[in-house]
Design goal:
The complex is a heterodimer of chains A (151) and B (463). By secondary structure, chain A is of the alpha+beta class. Chain A is built from 4 helices and 6 strands; from the N terminus they run ααββββαββα. Chain A has helices at residues 11-35, 42-67, 105-109, 131-145, and strands at residues 69-72, 76-81, 86-92, 98-102, 112-119, 122-130. In chain A, the strands form 2 sheets. A 3-stranded antiparallel sheet of chain A has the order 1-2-3. In chain A, strands 4-5-6 form a 3-stranded antiparallel sheet. The radius of gyration of chain A is 19 Å and the shape is elongated. The two termini of chain A are 31 Å apart. Chain B is of the alpha+beta class. Chain B has helices at 11-61, 100-104, 130-141, 162-170, 178-200, 206-232, 308-315, 335-357, 366-381, 419-424, 446-461; strands spanning 64-68, 71-76, 82-87, 91-98, 108-114, 123-128, 157-159, 236-240, 243-248, 253-259, 263-270, 279-286, 298-304, 383-387, 390-396, 400-406, 412-417, 426-432, 438-445. In chain B, β18 (426-432) and β19 (438-445) form a beta hairpin. The relative contact order of chain B is 0.08. Mean pLDDT of chain B is 84; it is low at 143-149. Classes of the chains: A alpha+beta (151), B alpha+beta (463).
Chain lengths: 151, 463
């Protein structure tokens, strides 16, 4: 069984950078507001927040994107992902109960969508596919699994 | 034909009323101690009882249930009406519970369980006649009406004897019960004494802390002994065609019937109090019961470890290991990965305590030693085997747990590697079973993990 080969679109990096920047802004604001209570150590909280922002918005998106691979075969869905801890997940298609695609406002602005495969054990998702691709993956898995195709 | 709307059995009024009284009891006790005095309690208790019964009667009047072609429906609510409808072909099981009120008036409480169900089942009929529960069971089984309503010949069964119950109770201590108790107790103390007096009760010296900890542990243990007896007294499990019927409990007599097709896996759990004696509990991993408490998942509440295979073979041959294969273990070089992280974490404790306690903190050095021993045990427990679609994964958290699953029905398989594992050529392998539980074994040989993942995928996708 070979490793999966399909990559996520390059836009995924931009989307994750945007998400990471928003989280970073939250962290920095938090450090500014609550750092005062730390007295002399306030600068440390601020520095930590800035470093975390850089990692979240610049480093992690690239690492994640470089690692992400997926493939939908006739019998199983195969995913490889993770910036530091690498996870490979296999979902037998006949265990898929239903598939859906979803796109939040921020994703929408990048033209991306998330595909989620639901099984009895929960769900596994491909987080940032181009909308057309996402619909194609959903339709393919739904027809392979002959399941409800609800969007 | 419009389906007939039915009322619940009258025992529902008593059961509901008792339930509400129970909810009132604690505030009443607190109010009594907090200054109302006993005379107030004497006044309040009967008023509370009357109010609870009237409330329960109104609820009963406004509750109806019926079977409408292909689904079971329940309508309830005094101010706003709520309707729940469960399609019969989605019903996993009809479970019954007999609480004190139901038993007194000859009724049963019915829980309609579905795959997605919460802890209590999708529809709860507070009280119906026992014949109605059987009628519902017949409906659910009904897709093949030829199936006999009652089993013609009783299948193999297993019971927990008096001695088994006693040993199960004595070895049942689990730290999980502590959290609500400690939280509840501190809440009550705060209410009764006020925060300042409650604080004075806190221990001052390390010796007092130790004594308090021991006292809390003993109380928790006694409570879990009691809880186990209440939950498992009269436990029996019977194989009845394509179902397991599990009966248990004294205060509330419960009867659950679990469809074999829904049993995703078994877990053999050896807790620290049981493992040294070669004892274990076997639990069912089944789709409708994922959120139920552990007691509801017990297939064998207490069994000798070496008898597990034989008993499972009789009750559930679908998941028995034909002949138990020895487990493949993680490689030797994985040992230090099991030992170092817990030991290093535990070593922080004495380091932090030294400035506060001085030389006394040296006693805390026992912690990293215990953590190292735990690491060795965790390494020794880890292992896997895959033989004719029977997957076995064993690992140790606090307790040693062995998962036995049918590889053909796994909904998710995964492998995971951290940067350190990649450098050492190790990997973590895990599966999810359809109850939603995930089990992973850490630090296996990376190459063996890849091979196992491939074999598991082949088993899970083969037609």
């Amino acid at each position: 069984m070979d490793e999966p080969t399909q990559r996520l679109p390059a836009d995924a990096k931009g989307y994750w950078r945007a998400v990471g920047s928003l989280q970073g802004i939250g962290l920095v604001l938090g450090a500014v507001v609550f750092g005062g209570s730390l007295g002399g150590l306030a600068w440390l909280a601020f520095l930590g927040a800035v470093v975390a922002t850089v990692v979240l918005s610049a480093v992690v998106p690239v690492l994640r994107w470089r690692r992400w691979r997926y493939e939908v075969r006739d019998e199983e869905i195969d995913l490889v992902r993770g910036a530091f801890v690498v996870r490979r997940t296999l979902i037998p298609i006949r265990r898929v109960q239903h598939v859906d695609t979803e796109s939040g406002p921020l994703q929408e602005s990048f033209g991306l969508a998330t595909v989620t495969f639901h099984t009895a054990a929960g769900g596994v998702e491909i987080p940032a596919l181009l909308k057309g691709e996402a619909d194609a993956v959903r339709a393919r898995v739904a027809s392979l699994a002959r399941t409800r195709d609800d969007t | 034909m419009t389906p007939e709307r039915r009322r619940l059995h009258r025992a529902a009024i008593l059961a509901e009323g008792l339930g509400q009284l129970r909810a009132l009891a604690l505030p009443l006790i607190v109010a009594t101690f907090a200054g109302g005095g006993v005379s107030m309690a004497v006044w309040l208790a009967p008023i509370g009882a009357v109010v609870a019964l009237i409330g329960a009667f109104v609820i009963w009047r406004n509750t109806a249930w019926w079977v409408d072609g292909s689904s079971i429906r329940l309508e309830s609510g005094v101010w706003t009406t709520k309707q729940v409808s469960v399609p019969i072909d989605r019903v996993q099981a009809i479970d019954t519970v007999r609480g004190p009120a139901q038993r007194l008036l000859g009724a049963v409480e019915v829980h309609v369980q579905t795959a997605g169900g919460g802890a209590r089942g999708e529809i709860v009929l507070r009280a119906v006649a026992p014949s109605v529960a059987e009628e519902l069971r017949g409906l659910v089984r009904g897709s093949s009406p030829s199936a006999p309503a009652a089993p013609s010949a009783p299948g193999p069964s297993w019971t927990l004897g008096r001695r088994g119950l006693l040993v199960a109770a004595l070895t049942s201590g689990s730290l999980g019960v502590l959290v609500p108790i400690v939280a509840g107790a501190s809440q009550v103390l705060d209410d009764v004494l006020g925060p300042e007096d409650a604080e004075r009760l806190l221990p001052d010296t390390p010796q007092e802390w130790l004594m308090a900890a021991v006292a809390v542990l003993v109380i928790a243990w006694l409570l879990s002994v009691l809880g186990t007896i209440v939950a498992f007294a009269g436990f029996s499990v019977t194989r009845d065609g394509d179902r397991l019927r599990i009966r248990r409990g004294i205060v509330e007599r419960r009867e659950a019937s679990v469809p074999i097709a829904r049993v995703a896996a078994l877990r053999v759990v050896e807790s620290p109090l049981r493992e040294p004696f070669g004892l274990a509990q076997v639990r069912l991993e089944s789709a409708g019961y994922a959120n139920e408490p552990a007691t509801a998942q017990a297939l064998l509440p207490l069994v000798r470890r070496r008898d597990v295979v034989a008993v499972v073979e009789r009750l559930l041959p679908e998941l028995a290991e034909s002949e138990p294969t020895p487990l493949a273990a993680p490689p030797r070089r994985a040992l230090r990965r099991y030992v170092v992280p817990p030991t290093a974490t535990a070593a922080l404790v004495p380091l932090v305590l030294v400035p506060f306690l001085g030389a006394q903190a040296l006693a805390a050095l026992a912690l990293p030693l215990a953590a190292a021993a735990y690491g060795v045990l965790a390494y020794r427990a880890a292992g896997w085997s895959l033989d004719a679609d029977r997957l076995v994964l064993r690992r140790r958290g606090l307790q040693r747990t062995t998962l036995v699953a049918d590889a053909r029905r796994l909904p998710e398989l995964f492998a995971r590697t951290s940067p350190l594992q990649r450098r050492a050529g190790l990997a973590t392998l895990g599966v999810a079973v359809s109850s939603g539980r995930r089990v992973a074994v850490r630090h296996l040989e990376a190459r063996a993990t890849g091979d196992l993942l491939r074999r598991l995928t082949r088993a899970a996708t083969r037609a």
